[in-house]
UniProtKB/TrEMBL annotation:
Similarity comment: family membership: Belongs to the ComF/GntX family.
Name of protein: Amidophosphoribosyltransferase
Pfam families, A to Z: Pribosyltran
Residues annotated as domain Phosphoribosyltransferase: 169-207
Organism annotation: Microbacterium trichothecenolyticum (Aureobacterium trichothecenolyticum)
Length: 225
C-alpha cells in the first residue's frame, strides 16, 4: 500500500476510535450524539452559483461558505472529521454533473506537502471521490505559496503566481476543483497552468464560495484561497 494511502487509513482509524470514546457532536450546531443533525444536513443542500473571478474565467460553486456550511467544512479540513465529506458531496456532485463534459478530466488543486502531513489526507480529493469522480492529479506544486492570511486580491495573485505545473492534459477537457474560493487567485493560477500544459476547455468548480462582501475586503479565513 502506498505510504499516503496507509497514512489516510491510520488517520481514519484514529478518528473512528476517538469518536467511539468521546462525545459526538454535530459539526454544524454542536448538538450532542449526532455527527451532523438533520437540520444541519438540510442546510447543505446546494444551489449552483457562478461567480466571475477574472475576465474570461468563472467558477461554479455549490454552497456559500457561511454558517453551518463553514463550520462543517472547517470540521472536515481541520478537525479530521472525514466522514462529513459524505454530507458535503451531494452538493458538489450536482455542480460537477452540470459542468463536466463526457470524457472530461476532473483535476483537484493540490495540497501542500505540509498540509498533507498534518492532516494525513487531501480534503479536495476526498470530496471529489465522495461525489462520484476519480480525481486526477494532473496538477502539482512547483513551489509552496506563502500564507494567504491577511492578503488582498492582488497580493494573493502574486503569492500563488507560478505555483502550479500541469501534465497529462494535452487536448483534454478539464474541470479543476477546489474546496473554497475567496478571491479566486488559486483557481485562476491552476487554470493558467492547465492551459499552459495544452489542456482544451477548462472549467473551474468549488465546493463553496465566500460571500462577496468578505472577499472584497481582502479578508481571509486562513485556510482558504
Amino acid at each position: 500500500m502506498p505510504r499516503s494511502s496507509l497514512l489516510s487509513v491510520v488517520v481514519s482509524s484514529l478518528t473512528d476510535a476517538l469518536t467511539f470514546w468521546l462525545p459526538l457532536s454535530c459539526a454544524g450546531c454542536g448538538a450532542l450524539d449526532d455527527a451532523l443533525c438533520p437540520g444541519c444536513r438540510g442546510a447543505l443542500a446546494g444551489a449552483r452559483v457562478d461567480r466571475a473571478i477574472e475576465p474570461g474565467l468563472t467558477v461554479s460553486c455549490a454552497l456559500e461558505f457561511s454558517g453551518v456550511t463553514a463550520r462543517v467544512i472547517r470540521a472536515l479540513k481541520e478537525d479530521g472529521r472525514t466522514g462529513l465529506a459524505r454530507d458535503l458531496a451531494p452538493a458538489l456532485a450536482a455542480v460537477l454533473r452540470s459542468v463536466t463534459p463526457p470524457g472530461g478530466l476532473v483535476v483537484t488543486v493540490p495540497s501542500s506537502a505540509t498540509a498533507f502531513r498534518r492532516r494525513g489526507y487531501r480534503p479536495v480529493d476526498l470530496l471529489v471521490r465522495r461525489a462520484g469522480w476519480s480525481p486526477e492529479r494532473a496538477l502539482r506544486l512547483r513551489r509552496a505559496p506563502g500564507d494567504q492570511r491577511g492578503l488582498g486580491r492582488a497580493a494573493r495573485r502574486r503569492n500563488v503566481g507560478g505555483a502550479f505545473v500541469a501534465r497529462g492534459v494535452n487536448g483534454r477537457a478539464v474541470v479543476v476543483v477546489d474546496d473554497v474560493v475567496t478571491t479566486g487567485a488559486t483557481l485562476a493560477e491552476a487554470v493558467r497552468a492547465l492551459r499552459a500544459a495544452g489542456a482544451g476547455p477548462v472549467w473551474a468548480v468549488a465546493l463553496a464560495h465566500t460571500p462577496l462582501r468578505i472577499a472584497s475586503r481582502g479578508e481571509s479565513h486562513g485556510i482558504f484561497t
